[in-house]
Structures are given as C-alpha cells and as structure tokens.
Amino acid sequence: MNLPKVIEELVKTQNEFDSSAYANCFAEDAQVFDEGKTHIGKAEIEKWIDKSNRDYKATMEPVAYDEKEYILSAKIAGTFPGSPLVLKFHFTMADGKIQSLKVTE
C-alpha cells in the first residue's frame, strides 16, 4: 500500500500513542471531524487525540487506501465497545500536512 508520508507518520504516531507527534501531522488551522465533534487547530487536535489515546488505547492497521480520494480504511482496535472495527479516514492535504480529517464508519 502506497501511503503519503504524512499519513504513514499519522499511523505510526497513533500506534505509539504520541499525541504531540500526531498533532504535528496537521496544518496549524487543520480541522478534525470525529464522533459528531469538530476540533480546530493543532492544539485542540492534540487535546482530542490525547484524550482518545487515554480512553481507548486505539491502534490503527491500514487495510486499504484510495489514492484519488485520499481515503484510508484502517482496522482500529482498542478498549472501546465493538473493537476492532474498520473506519474510514477522509483526508484533505496541503503542503505535506493534513488540512482536514473526517472519520466515518
């Protein structure tokens, strides 16, 4: 699977539970849409993923990637109900950073 470098880094930092490095994959004004909430800016994204890491200990295993649409399908396993499950990560990129991320089922 040929993932863009920044998405490879995102998966790596998620699996290491490194919230700061995870947030650094995003542009300063990036947006994340997950579980019905929007998180704007790197600082807010870092707080969101840090809480998620503490609450769910979720790891990512890429299973498919749509290079045209920038959609990563990944098996997510952790301490949450229904684990593991496959989620879709819809990316918008700019200048080698993630501009937006929307997580869907």
TrEMBL record:
Pfam family, one: SnoaL_2
Record domain SnoaL-like: where: 8-99
Listed InterPro entries: NTF2-like_dom_sf (IPR032710), SnoaL-like (IPR037401)
Superkingdom per UniProt: Bacteria
Residue ranges of the TM segments: none
The protein's name in its UniProt record: SnoaL-like domain-containing protein
Source organism per UniProt: Chryseobacterium formosense
